[in-house]
Amino acid sequence: MVYNGVIERYKEYLPVTEKTPIITLKEGNTPLIPASCLGSLIGDNFAVYLKYEGLNPTGSFKDRGMTVAISKACEEKATAVICASTGNTSASSAAYAAKAGMKCFVLIPEGAIALGKLSQAFIHGAVVLAVKGNFDTALKLAREITAKYPVTLVNSLNPYRIEGQKTASFEICDTLGNAPDFQLMPVGNAGNITAYWKGYKEYKEKGNSTKLPKMLGFQAEGAAPIVKGRPIKNPKTIATAIKIGNPASWKTAVEARDESGGLIDTVSDDEIIAAYKLLAEKEGIFVEPASAVSVAGLIKLTKNGYFKNLPITAYQLPIAIVCILTGHGLKDPERAIATIKKPRVLKPDLKVILKEMGYY
Ligand code: F0G
User: Fold this and answer.
1) Which residue's CA is minimally distant from atom 7 of ligand 1?
2) Which of 12, 63, 352, 360 has its CA 20 to 30 A from that of 153?
3) Does residue 187's CB lie within 6 angstroms of at least one atom of ligand 1?
4) 314: exposed, middle or buried (C-beta count within 10 Å: 0-12, 13-18, 19+)?
Protein backbone atom coordinates (compact mmCIF):
# COMPACT_ATOMS: atom_id res chain seq x y z
CA MET A 1 0.00 0.00 0.00
CA VAL A 2 1.25 3.50 -0.83
CA TYR A 3 2.02 5.52 2.29
CA ASN A 4 0.53 9.02 2.23
CA GLY A 5 1.50 10.60 5.55
CA VAL A 6 0.05 10.76 9.05
CA ILE A 7 -3.24 12.48 8.19
CA GLU A 8 -4.33 9.81 5.76
CA ARG A 9 -3.12 6.99 8.00
CA TYR A 10 -4.77 8.22 11.20
CA LYS A 11 -7.54 10.50 9.92
CA GLU A 12 -10.22 9.01 12.18
CA TYR A 13 -8.22 10.33 15.17
CA LEU A 14 -7.53 13.77 13.68
CA PRO A 15 -9.66 16.94 13.29
CA VAL A 16 -9.90 16.70 9.50
CA THR A 17 -12.80 16.26 7.10
CA GLU A 18 -13.14 15.66 3.33
CA LYS A 19 -12.98 19.45 3.00
CA THR A 20 -9.50 19.68 4.52
CA PRO A 21 -6.84 20.09 1.83
CA ILE A 22 -4.10 17.71 2.92
CA ILE A 23 -0.65 19.29 2.81
CA THR A 24 1.80 16.46 3.33
CA LEU A 25 5.43 15.57 2.70
CA LYS A 26 4.62 11.96 3.69
CA GLU A 27 5.87 12.50 7.22
CA GLY A 28 5.66 9.82 9.92
CA ASN A 29 6.02 6.05 9.53
CA THR A 30 9.44 6.35 11.19
CA PRO A 31 11.27 3.21 12.31
CA LEU A 32 11.28 1.83 15.84
CA ILE A 33 14.81 0.46 16.03
CA PRO A 34 15.82 -2.16 18.62
CA ALA A 35 18.81 -0.83 20.56
CA SER A 36 20.86 -3.89 21.38
CA CYS A 37 23.72 -2.07 23.06
CA LEU A 38 21.49 0.02 25.30
CA GLY A 39 19.31 -3.02 26.06
CA SER A 40 22.29 -4.96 27.36
CA LEU A 41 23.15 -2.06 29.68
CA ILE A 42 19.82 -2.41 31.48
CA GLY A 43 19.38 -6.17 31.67
CA ASP A 44 17.83 -9.29 30.16
CA ASN A 45 14.25 -8.48 31.11
CA PHE A 46 14.23 -5.28 29.06
CA ALA A 47 13.87 -4.43 25.40
CA VAL A 48 14.94 -0.92 24.40
CA TYR A 49 13.68 0.69 21.18
CA LEU A 50 14.59 3.97 19.53
CA LYS A 51 11.86 5.89 17.69
CA TYR A 52 13.97 7.67 15.09
CA GLU A 53 12.01 10.82 14.37
CA GLY A 54 15.02 12.36 12.66
CA LEU A 55 13.88 10.46 9.56
CA ASN A 56 10.89 12.72 9.01
CA PRO A 57 11.00 14.87 5.82
CA THR A 58 12.58 17.92 7.46
CA GLY A 59 14.56 15.83 9.96
CA SER A 60 12.45 16.19 13.10
CA PHE A 61 9.16 15.15 14.74
CA LYS A 62 7.73 18.60 14.07
CA ASP A 63 6.52 17.47 10.64
CA ARG A 64 3.79 15.32 12.20
CA GLY A 65 2.21 18.38 13.79
CA MET A 66 2.99 20.70 10.93
CA THR A 67 1.08 18.66 8.32
CA VAL A 68 -2.08 19.04 10.43
CA ALA A 69 -1.47 22.69 11.40
CA ILE A 70 -0.74 23.79 7.81
CA SER A 71 -3.58 21.71 6.33
CA LYS A 72 -6.03 23.29 8.76
CA ALA A 73 -4.58 26.77 8.14
CA CYS A 74 -5.13 26.13 4.43
CA GLU A 75 -8.70 25.01 5.07
CA GLU A 76 -9.26 28.23 7.04
CA LYS A 77 -7.87 30.21 4.05
CA ALA A 78 -4.85 31.52 5.94
CA THR A 79 -2.17 33.07 3.76
CA ALA A 80 0.62 33.44 6.30
CA VAL A 81 1.96 31.52 9.30
CA ILE A 82 4.44 32.39 12.02
CA CYS A 83 6.35 30.53 14.70
CA ALA A 84 8.99 31.22 17.30
CA SER A 85 11.56 28.48 17.22
CA THR A 86 14.77 27.00 18.51
CA GLY A 87 15.14 25.75 14.93
CA ASN A 88 13.17 22.62 14.10
CA THR A 89 9.72 24.19 14.15
CA SER A 90 11.00 26.92 11.83
CA ALA A 91 12.46 24.35 9.41
CA SER A 92 9.24 22.36 9.38
CA SER A 93 6.88 25.33 9.11
CA ALA A 94 8.99 26.80 6.30
CA ALA A 95 8.84 23.54 4.32
CA TYR A 96 5.11 22.89 4.79
CA ALA A 97 4.22 26.54 4.14
CA ALA A 98 6.26 26.35 0.92
CA LYS A 99 4.31 23.25 -0.11
CA ALA A 100 1.03 25.03 0.69
CA GLY A 101 2.04 28.26 -1.10
CA MET A 102 1.82 30.30 2.10
CA LYS A 103 4.07 32.96 3.51
CA CYS A 104 6.09 31.87 6.54
CA PHE A 105 7.66 34.08 9.20
CA VAL A 106 10.00 32.66 11.80
CA LEU A 107 11.22 34.38 14.94
CA ILE A 108 14.45 32.89 16.22
CA PRO A 109 16.65 33.71 19.18
CA GLU A 110 19.70 35.43 17.70
CA GLY A 111 22.80 33.25 17.47
CA ALA A 112 21.20 30.25 19.15
CA ILE A 113 20.03 28.14 16.21
CA ALA A 114 21.94 25.15 14.85
CA LEU A 115 23.25 25.68 11.33
CA GLY A 116 21.29 22.91 9.59
CA LYS A 117 17.95 24.22 10.87
CA LEU A 118 18.72 27.79 9.89
CA SER A 119 19.69 26.71 6.37
CA GLN A 120 16.35 24.90 6.05
CA ALA A 121 14.28 27.95 7.02
CA PHE A 122 16.22 30.06 4.52
CA ILE A 123 16.11 27.66 1.60
CA HIS A 124 12.35 27.10 1.92
CA GLY A 125 11.87 30.83 1.59
CA ALA A 126 10.76 31.77 5.09
CA VAL A 127 11.22 35.31 6.32
CA VAL A 128 13.70 34.73 9.13
CA LEU A 129 13.67 37.35 11.87
CA ALA A 130 16.38 37.02 14.54
CA VAL A 131 15.37 38.50 17.87
CA LYS A 132 17.76 39.72 20.55
CA GLY A 133 16.60 37.45 23.34
CA ASN A 134 15.82 33.81 23.96
CA PHE A 135 13.09 31.47 22.68
CA ASP A 136 10.65 32.54 25.39
CA THR A 137 10.93 36.18 24.30
CA ALA A 138 10.41 35.19 20.65
CA LEU A 139 7.33 33.11 21.48
CA LYS A 140 5.79 35.97 23.45
CA LEU A 141 6.22 38.23 20.42
CA ALA A 142 4.76 35.64 18.04
CA ARG A 143 1.69 35.30 20.27
CA GLU A 144 1.23 39.07 20.36
CA ILE A 145 1.48 39.32 16.59
CA THR A 146 -1.05 36.53 15.92
CA ALA A 147 -3.51 38.04 18.39
CA LYS A 148 -3.73 41.18 16.25
CA TYR A 149 -2.71 40.35 12.67
CA PRO A 150 -3.95 37.82 10.08
CA VAL A 151 -1.10 35.38 10.64
CA THR A 152 -1.63 31.86 12.00
CA LEU A 153 0.55 30.71 14.91
CA VAL A 154 2.03 27.28 14.23
CA ASN A 155 3.85 26.75 17.50
CA SER A 156 2.58 23.83 19.59
CA LEU A 157 0.13 26.24 21.25
CA ASN A 158 -1.78 25.60 18.03
CA PRO A 159 -3.86 22.54 19.03
CA TYR A 160 -3.53 20.99 15.56
CA ARG A 161 0.20 20.60 16.16
CA ILE A 162 -0.47 18.44 19.22
CA GLU A 163 -3.06 16.43 17.29
CA GLY A 164 -0.55 15.60 14.57
CA GLN A 165 2.29 14.83 16.94
CA LYS A 166 0.23 12.30 18.87
CA THR A 167 0.39 10.00 15.82
CA ALA A 168 3.90 8.96 16.88
CA SER A 169 2.43 7.17 19.89
CA PHE A 170 -0.07 5.39 17.61
CA GLU A 171 2.80 4.16 15.44
CA ILE A 172 4.68 2.86 18.47
CA CYS A 173 1.60 0.92 19.64
CA ASP A 174 0.96 -0.41 16.14
CA THR A 175 4.57 -1.62 15.83
CA LEU A 176 4.86 -3.17 19.31
CA GLY A 177 1.30 -4.53 19.36
CA ASN A 178 0.72 -2.56 22.56
CA ALA A 179 1.92 0.59 24.32
CA PRO A 180 5.43 0.37 25.79
CA ASP A 181 5.95 0.21 29.56
CA PHE A 182 8.20 3.28 29.65
CA GLN A 183 8.74 6.16 27.26
CA LEU A 184 11.67 8.52 27.60
CA MET A 185 11.87 11.87 25.80
CA PRO A 186 13.35 15.36 25.90
CA VAL A 187 11.14 18.17 27.19
CA GLY A 188 11.51 21.72 25.88
CA ASN A 189 8.38 23.74 25.24
CA ALA A 190 6.57 20.56 26.42
CA GLY A 191 4.22 20.15 23.46
CA ASN A 192 5.58 16.76 22.47
CA ILE A 193 5.17 15.06 25.86
CA THR A 194 1.64 16.48 25.91
CA ALA A 195 0.97 15.03 22.44
CA TYR A 196 2.34 11.55 23.17
CA TRP A 197 0.37 11.23 26.39
CA LYS A 198 -2.83 12.35 24.65
CA GLY A 199 -2.16 9.79 21.90
CA TYR A 200 -1.51 6.89 24.26
CA LYS A 201 -4.69 7.62 26.21
CA GLU A 202 -6.84 7.90 23.07
CA TYR A 203 -5.44 4.70 21.57
CA LYS A 204 -6.15 2.78 24.76
CA GLU A 205 -9.69 4.18 24.96
CA LYS A 206 -10.29 2.97 21.40
CA GLY A 207 -9.10 -0.51 22.42
CA ASN A 208 -5.93 -0.43 20.34
CA SER A 209 -3.71 -0.98 23.38
CA THR A 210 -4.24 -2.38 26.86
CA LYS A 211 -1.80 -0.31 28.91
CA LEU A 212 -0.26 3.14 29.23
CA PRO A 213 3.45 3.89 29.50
CA LYS A 214 5.09 5.76 32.33
CA MET A 215 6.16 9.05 30.77
CA LEU A 216 9.77 9.87 31.66
CA GLY A 217 10.73 13.36 30.51
CA PHE A 218 14.14 15.02 30.70
CA GLN A 219 15.28 18.62 30.62
CA ALA A 220 18.84 19.90 30.34
CA GLU A 221 20.21 20.86 33.76
CA GLY A 222 20.63 24.53 32.79
CA ALA A 223 17.17 24.73 31.22
CA ALA A 224 14.97 22.78 33.62
CA PRO A 225 12.04 24.99 34.66
CA ILE A 226 9.63 22.09 35.20
CA VAL A 227 12.08 20.17 37.40
CA LYS A 228 13.00 23.30 39.37
CA GLY A 229 9.37 24.41 39.61
CA ARG A 230 10.03 27.95 38.35
CA PRO A 231 10.76 29.69 35.02
CA ILE A 232 14.46 30.01 34.18
CA LYS A 233 15.37 33.50 32.97
CA ASN A 234 18.58 32.63 31.12
CA PRO A 235 18.39 28.96 30.13
CA LYS A 236 21.72 27.39 29.18
CA THR A 237 22.54 24.12 27.45
CA ILE A 238 24.41 22.81 24.42
CA ALA A 239 21.11 21.16 23.41
CA THR A 240 19.86 24.37 21.76
CA ALA A 241 16.56 22.80 20.67
CA ILE A 242 15.42 22.61 24.29
CA LYS A 243 17.01 25.79 25.60
CA ILE A 244 13.69 27.01 26.94
CA GLY A 245 13.01 28.67 30.28
CA ASN A 246 9.23 28.93 30.40
CA PRO A 247 7.50 26.11 28.47
CA ALA A 248 4.11 26.91 26.97
CA SER A 249 2.72 23.44 27.74
CA TRP A 250 4.10 23.27 31.28
CA LYS A 251 0.78 22.28 32.87
CA THR A 252 0.00 19.43 30.47
CA ALA A 253 3.55 18.09 30.78
CA VAL A 254 3.11 17.87 34.54
CA GLU A 255 -0.25 16.13 33.98
CA ALA A 256 1.41 13.57 31.67
CA ARG A 257 4.05 12.93 34.30
CA ASP A 258 1.61 12.59 37.18
CA GLU A 259 -1.22 10.72 35.47
CA SER A 260 1.25 8.17 34.09
CA GLY A 261 3.19 7.75 37.34
CA GLY A 262 6.33 8.91 35.55
CA LEU A 263 8.88 11.63 36.24
CA ILE A 264 10.57 14.68 34.77
CA ASP A 265 14.26 14.89 35.66
CA THR A 266 17.41 16.64 34.49
CA VAL A 267 20.50 15.50 32.58
CA SER A 268 23.73 17.46 32.38
CA ASP A 269 25.36 18.63 29.14
CA ASP A 270 28.16 16.08 29.75
CA GLU A 271 25.58 13.30 30.06
CA ILE A 272 23.91 14.52 26.85
CA ILE A 273 27.20 14.46 24.92
CA ALA A 274 28.07 10.99 26.27
CA ALA A 275 24.68 9.66 25.08
CA TYR A 276 25.06 11.51 21.75
CA LYS A 277 28.37 9.74 21.13
CA LEU A 278 27.14 6.37 22.35
CA LEU A 279 24.15 6.47 19.98
CA ALA A 280 26.41 7.29 17.06
CA GLU A 281 29.24 4.89 17.92
CA LYS A 282 27.30 1.88 19.24
CA GLU A 283 23.84 2.06 17.70
CA GLY A 284 24.77 3.69 14.39
CA ILE A 285 22.29 6.52 14.86
CA PHE A 286 23.17 10.18 14.47
CA VAL A 287 20.91 12.53 16.38
CA GLU A 288 21.08 16.13 17.43
CA PRO A 289 22.09 16.79 21.06
CA ALA A 290 18.51 17.48 22.28
CA SER A 291 17.47 14.05 21.03
CA ALA A 292 20.26 12.31 22.92
CA VAL A 293 18.57 13.61 26.07
CA SER A 294 16.20 10.62 26.17
CA VAL A 295 19.11 8.17 26.10
CA ALA A 296 21.06 10.27 28.62
CA GLY A 297 17.98 9.94 30.83
CA LEU A 298 17.87 6.19 30.30
CA ILE A 299 21.51 5.84 31.33
CA LYS A 300 20.97 8.07 34.37
CA LEU A 301 17.93 6.12 35.56
CA THR A 302 19.72 2.81 34.99
CA LYS A 303 22.66 3.99 37.11
CA ASN A 304 20.22 5.15 39.82
CA GLY A 305 18.67 1.68 39.98
CA TYR A 306 15.27 2.89 38.75
CA PHE A 307 14.74 -0.15 36.51
CA LYS A 308 16.42 -2.65 38.85
CA ASN A 309 13.92 -1.96 41.61
CA LEU A 310 10.82 -2.63 39.50
CA PRO A 311 8.32 -5.29 40.58
CA ILE A 312 9.23 -7.51 37.60
CA THR A 313 6.34 -9.94 38.20
CA ALA A 314 3.86 -7.14 37.51
CA TYR A 315 5.10 -6.92 33.91
CA GLN A 316 4.81 -8.99 30.80
CA LEU A 317 8.42 -9.61 29.79
CA PRO A 318 10.42 -8.18 28.19
CA ILE A 319 9.63 -4.77 29.63
CA ALA A 320 9.41 -2.40 26.65
CA ILE A 321 11.27 0.90 26.86
CA VAL A 322 11.03 3.44 24.03
CA CYS A 323 13.38 6.41 23.72
CA ILE A 324 12.24 9.15 21.36
CA LEU A 325 15.01 10.49 19.11
CA THR A 326 13.42 13.76 18.08
CA GLY A 327 15.81 15.18 15.48
CA HIS A 328 18.55 14.22 13.02
CA GLY A 329 22.23 14.73 13.79
CA LEU A 330 22.85 16.65 10.57
CA LYS A 331 20.75 19.46 12.00
CA ASP A 332 23.74 20.47 14.12
CA PRO A 333 26.91 19.45 12.27
CA GLU A 334 29.00 21.93 14.23
CA ARG A 335 28.36 20.03 17.45
CA ALA A 336 29.51 16.78 15.89
CA ILE A 337 32.70 18.38 14.61
CA ALA A 338 33.35 19.97 18.01
CA THR A 339 32.91 16.59 19.70
CA ILE A 340 35.38 14.54 17.66
CA LYS A 341 39.15 14.66 17.21
CA LYS A 342 40.14 16.58 14.08
CA PRO A 343 41.55 14.28 11.36
CA ARG A 344 45.32 14.48 10.99
CA VAL A 345 46.55 15.67 7.62
CA LEU A 346 48.97 13.11 6.15
CA LYS A 347 51.45 12.96 3.30
CA PRO A 348 49.94 11.21 0.23
CA ASP A 349 52.18 8.22 0.87
CA LEU A 350 50.81 4.67 1.10
CA LYS A 351 53.17 3.67 3.94
CA VAL A 352 52.27 6.71 6.02
CA ILE A 353 48.55 6.04 5.56
CA LEU A 354 48.85 2.29 6.25
CA LYS A 355 50.82 3.09 9.41
CA GLU A 356 48.03 5.42 10.57
CA MET A 357 45.53 2.61 9.86
CA GLY A 358 47.52 0.21 11.98
CA TYR A 359 48.40 -2.10 9.06
CA TYR A 360 52.08 -1.30 8.80
N1 F0G B 1 13.86 17.71 20.50
C2 F0G B 1 14.05 18.53 19.45
C3 F0G B 1 15.02 18.11 18.41
C4 F0G B 1 13.33 19.75 19.37
O5 F0G B 1 13.53 20.53 18.32
C6 F0G B 1 12.44 20.09 20.41
C7 F0G B 1 11.71 21.34 20.37
C8 F0G B 1 12.29 19.18 21.47
C9 F0G B 1 13.01 18.00 21.49
C10 F0G B 1 11.35 19.44 22.60
O11 F0G B 1 10.03 19.30 22.20
O12 F0G B 1 9.24 21.58 22.76
O13 F0G B 1 7.64 19.75 22.32
O14 F0G B 1 9.00 19.76 24.40
N15 F0G B 1 11.89 22.27 19.52
C16 F0G B 1 11.07 23.46 19.38
C17 F0G B 1 11.47 24.23 18.13
C18 F0G B 1 10.94 24.26 20.60
O19 F0G B 1 11.26 25.45 18.09
O20 F0G B 1 11.93 23.62 17.18
P21 F0G B 1 8.90 20.14 22.97
Assistant:
1) 241
2) 12
3) yes
4) exposed
Under 8 Å between Cβ of 154 and 81: yes
Which ligand 1 atom sits closest to the C-alpha of 185? Answer: 9
Question: Could you give the 3-state DSSP secondary structure of residue 102?
Answer: coil
242 lines ligand 1 (CB under 6 A): yes
Tell me the backbone φ, ψ of residue 162, rounded to 5 degrees. -65, -40
**CA 301 remoteness from chain centre:** 20
The CA 262 to ligand 1 mean position distance, Å, reads 20
Q: What phi and psi values does residue 109 have, to the nearest 5 degrees?
A: -70, 130
Map 16-48 to HEC letters: CCCCCCCCCCCCCCCCEEECHHHHHHHCCCEEE
| Atom nearest to 117 CA in ligand 1 | 20
Using DSSP's 3-state secondary structure scheme, residue 188 falls into coil
Looking at this protein, which amino acid is placed at residue 353?
I
Output the tens digit of pLDDT for each of the chain's 360 residues.
899 999 999 999 999 999 999 999 999 999 999 999 999 999 999 999 999 999 999 999 999 999 999 999 999 999 999 999 999 999 999 999 999 999 999 999 999 999 999 999 999 999 999 999 999 999 999 999 999 999 999 999 999 999 999 999 999 999 999 999 999 999 999 999 999 999 999 999 999 999 999 999 999 999 999 999 999 999 999 999 999 999 999 999 999 999 999 999 999 999 999 999 999 999 999 999 999 999 999 999 999 999 998 999 999 999 999 999 999 999 999 999 999 888 889 999 999 999 999 998
Say what the pTM is. Answer: 0.97
